[in-house]
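Q: What would this chain look like folded?
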Amino acid sequence: MPRQRSMPWTYRWSRPLIAGIASIGAAVTAYLTYSKLTGSQAACPTNGCDVVLASPYATVLGQPLALFGFLAYASMVVFAIAPLLLNSPAQKPLRAKLENWTGLLLLLGAAAMMTFSGYLMYLLAFNIKAVCVYCVASALFSTTLFILAFIGREWKDLGLPFFSTAIVAVLVLLTTLAIYAPINSPTAKDPGNGQPSPGGFTITTSSGPAEIALANHLTQTKATFYGAYWCPHCHDQKQLFGKEAAKLIPYVECIEGGINPQPKRCEAASVKSFPTWTVKGKTVTGTRPLQELAQLSGYKGLQNFKNTLPDQPDAH
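A: My prediction, written as structure tokens:
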């Protein structure tokens, strides 16, 4: 009687491993989604995580990029464990069909995630120029998921996984390039069409005597405003000052690609999110009302500021 071939361990354990890794990925992306939506600082050993979250690449179709990552990881968890829930002998044929379909979906899903993560690594290295440990971890997760999905089942025709993943990778790459085209296109980085130029977004508000006086006072007292040219919250801060006073505030550009970038100075100041103010030895983050900056800096001049944050009552 011929000896029955034992099942390779990869076939037995690939789905539980995929479910476990994807669950970790879902938890991480859920946390990053929360950080992005609330504007809170992400726990990160470097300032790269908040730099990435504040970049225009962190928003896709008006939603946090991390939200789409969470949905992708959650889908991988469902695909991995769905057949494992069918244990009775009567459910064996259904389980076999489900394993076949979800096996292909796991491979294609992991291929899509790995392709996008690879492009994100390119952006981190050459465009954003920051190290995000969560992004790097996600790239490792997606690559591991792809490997497990490939070796976790027997492929009767190897042409199917190779051809299918190649098609998915090309489609994901083309879609990603199309979505990020307004950001990546040199002609799109014109202040007039809503994208940041090296000098930042266009400032549309005007300054009054109070804004100009406060800007001069902040410079004289050696306050510092650390930001990034593509940071929308930094733009909000400049909008509060107005275009005339914004030229006078003590601004330091932290990101390569902006005008007169000084990333080493920002690193020395332990800047981990944008905007960050240092005023008389105190550090505050986020877009700050001008009244608060005036109080922190000891400014005693005119305070009938013209501009307010969208969620604040008018100052007049």
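The chain has twelve helices and six strands.
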